[in-house]
Amino acid sequence: MSPLKNKIRLKGRLKRYVQTSLYLGLVLAIVNLVVYLINIPSGLVVTCFMLLYFAVVLSLQFYNKPVIINELVSFATQYGQIQKVLLRELEIPYAMLDDGGRIIWTNEAFEKVVHKEKGYKKSITSLFPSVTKEKLPGELDMVEMDILYENSNYVAKMRKISMGEMITNSDIVEGEDYSGYLIAFYLFDETALRIALQEVDDQSLAVGMIYLDNYDEALESVEEVRRSLLVALIDRKVNKYIAALDGICKKIEKDKYMVILRKKATELLRENKFDLLDEVKTVNIGNEMAVTISIGMGIDGLTYAQNYEFARNAIDLALGRGGDQAVVKTPGNVTYYGGKSQQVEKNTRVKARVKAQALREIISSKEQVLIMGHRLADVDSFGAAVGIYRIATTLDRKAYIVLNDISTSMKPIVDLFKSHEDYQEDMIISSQQAIELAGNNTVLVVVDVNKPAITECPELLRICKSIVVLDHHRQGTEVIENATLSYVEAYASSACEMVSEILQYIGESIKISPEEADCMYSGIMIDTSNFMTKTGVRTFEAAAFLRRNGADVTRVRKLFREDANEYKTKADAVSQAEIYRNAFAISTCSSEGIQSPTIVGAQAANELLNIRGVKASFVLTEYQNQIFVSARSIDEVNVQIIMEKMGGGGHLGTAGCQLNGVSVSEGIGILKGTLDKMIAEGDLIIE
Q1: Using an 8 Å Cβ cutoff, are 248 and 315 in contact?
Q2: What pLDDT does residue 94 have?
């Protein structure tokens, strides 16, 4: 036996097992004594047997113990070698790192993945740049992260292995307070799993709705004998397009289709920017008006029913934004495509009459009415509020207009009502007063805005259970939810136009005063830039109705004469405009000494459109620690989608946004970057 093995002693269960024969010998000796007490000759026989037993046991102990120890040492050595081989040949890529991320040891599978030979000792970051030192396990014992390496997807698991106990029990080094550790680094290849999951996801159901925006108007522009041909050509165009995507298209009404597609097919639609929108416009058999469609898609829902609901919400958004566009809705996102043409004005007033009767019933069922527009109210917002105020008071309901800040341009009109004896002193109240008045028996009417965040008092939307929305702006992702009545028509020139139509159908007993007519006429005039933009037949009919009820153009013009400083500021903004990319006029408007700089900025943006070659204008105004961007165009550029990219919204030709935490120069940089990106991606086309 070697000196090393001489020092080895058995212990535990193995030691007790080997010594069991000795313990049994002691028991035999005791039995021998008992036998002696009973019978001496018998005791002598047992003694002989006992001596023979001890001789055999001791000889076995002497000769077998070294053999057992030798076998144990050999087994331990072979076991350690087997473990090392197994770990080295383990199919899972595995490496040991120090606490700084430097590679100490790797197995064959790891070396095969990273294409490095045994003995590679550099940092793990040199192989996987995403595994930085900050992402190594520090306070956490286990860290897991996804890694993309050579077109393969891996899940990397890093486990901390403390070295403190090993150092404490070591006979070679000292370090009682040592807190270092090693990191076990595993790689699990999930490429095949992810491909399989992607295949399943691609085959999942997507539901779509396709509506013809101007079906009746387009048919009326064609001879009666050719109308069926126009409908057939549109049907063929839509069905052929969907069939090419391996989808199902079913016509559910004369101007509505339901579409079933695989999710992968919707990705093709997105890549092609929903070119079906443009293909349908090419159908022409002599019709004066091009047919446009709206598309709503619902994907990634938990159930088929939820995808269908997403599609219904998406088509409502597309129609609410003016049509001629596609909207894709998922559980966490809404994406818009198209929307580059002006919505066609509807000839029929049936919808206005139905909404008017519904509004009358809602107001009649409540005791009081709160009316509010958007923050920093303009003439259109206030004029529409005055029209609703007249409806409420005629129906013998107490009404209040919520208005906080009054701009200089608004002051002359507001003073008309504050100083007039026919109107109560509490006609106009603040947000705080409105919150105190609001209750279960109150109806809240929101005019000229459908985005809750920019209303005059968002808190009222949470307090009031009955809400009515009347607006002419295109809807965005954020809308007023759970509205009892929602009347949003993007083709309308202004909220005052919509309220003027409602007044004509609400009841014969309603009579509006000249002051109210002036106020609503002013709203239409301002929002149409003196009837130059977004005006249709119904716009002039609404203006004619107001003129018949006492609106005076001369009085209105006097109300909007400008202050000299504001006029000079507007002129400065126009004079210093930069023409960007030969198509966009960009300027800034000073707020120094101006009470309503945002209005002046909007006016300057309108003036810039008079410059030849300008497709869209943008004026940035710094006011109340924010940058207000006013965007305007005539018909060549959809400024709404530009402003939506920057967090705002509006109309095709009139839009805006607010930027927080940036300077004017930074705001211009953001605007230019947005324009460049949209042009590069094909969302904006300048010729």
Answers
A1: no
A2: 87
The C-alpha atoms of residue 431 and residue 440 are separated, in whole angstroms, by 17
| Structure tokens given for 150 | 């050579």
81 membership: H or E segment, kind and range: helix 40-88
Across all residues in the chain, what is the average pLDDT? 85
How far apart, in whole angstroms, are the C-alpha atoms of residue 616 and residue 228? 40
Q: 579 - beta bridge partners?
A: 585
617-651 b/e (C-beta count within 10 Å ≥ 16 → b): bbbbbbbeeebbbbbbbeeebbbbbbbbbbebbbb
Query: The pTM is what?
Result: 0.58
Q: Which long-range contacts (CB under 8 A, 24 or more apart) does 642-650 make?
A: 642/616, 642/674, 642/675, 642/678, 642/684, 644/336, 644/476, 645/674, 645/677, 645/678, 646/670, 646/671, 646/674, 649/451, 649/473, 649/474, 649/476, 650/473, 650/474
- Buried b / exposed e over 486-507, threshold 16 CB at 10 Å, is bbbbbbbbbbbbbbbbbbbbbe
Strand partners of residue 149: 152
CA 490-495-498 angle, 5° bins: 80
Is it the case that residue 635 has pLDDT exceeding 70?
A: yes
For position 4, what pLDDT does the model report? 44
Residue with tokens 């809602």: 362
